[in-house]
User: Fold this.
Amino acid sequence: MEENKQEIIDEKDESQNEEIEAETEVVEEEPNELEQLRQEKEEINNRLLRLQADYDNFRRRTQKEKEADRKYRSQSLVEELIPALDNFERALQVEVDGDSAKNFANGMKMVYDQFKAALEKEGVEEIPAKGEEFDPHMHQAIMQVEDENYESNIVVEELQKGYRLKDRVIRPSMVKVNQ
Assistant:
């Protein structure tokens, strides 16, 4: 009987050992699975953060594009009107004789002033040139002269006015520059 008891105890011990080994394998597998789940979670979080950053960058970029479109919406119109402004200025430089011609010239001057005011309201400015230091972004040098009255690299004469729309040059000033 004792042998039977011993066999039963041995069998119980063996089955308990098998259960412990099985549980140990499960416990050993769980940390690996747990670590994999943590890594997956971290990867998903990183992807989410990248997507959010991409979306924010896209939103900022489209906002800047919209602002630029609004800011310079009148650029093509201004480019078309500048030659007309030049012609007005040339017409106003002609000397006139007689009262009716002077009245006509005064009327033209009023239209010119109104035209210029409308462009200024839209953000169009003349680029200062004569007496200014030559700036290749604002001025187009078509001649170089030697003039003792001016320092080197100073605009001596403006041959054609330049214009900018807000901070963008529409047409550079054509100038003579002192050497």
